[in-house]
Amino acid sequence: MVAAPVRIADAATVRLLRPGDRVDVIAAQETATGGDARVVARGARVTKVPEPPAPSESTTDGGALTGGGALIVLSVPRTTAARLAGASATERLAVTLC
Asked: What is the pTM assigned to this prediction?
């Protein structure tokens, strides 16, 4: 198992999470013909939910850092961490509580 930092698109959702929670991570991609979503991690354990930045360190976009969303750290197998990193480069990530 490795620690995988993951930026979730909806910062408000991240505020609902606590260390120890189990989540599925879903990657969603906008295409010309509509949206497509896939699960990239199942039952990942949340190990850390970093505090949001102080208002002076954020944009006026609802307190989110440039790029939006919020960071969480998940404990996942190495192969899942690689899938998460790849998905986060091109897709928006969301979580559901298990």
From this structure: 0.82
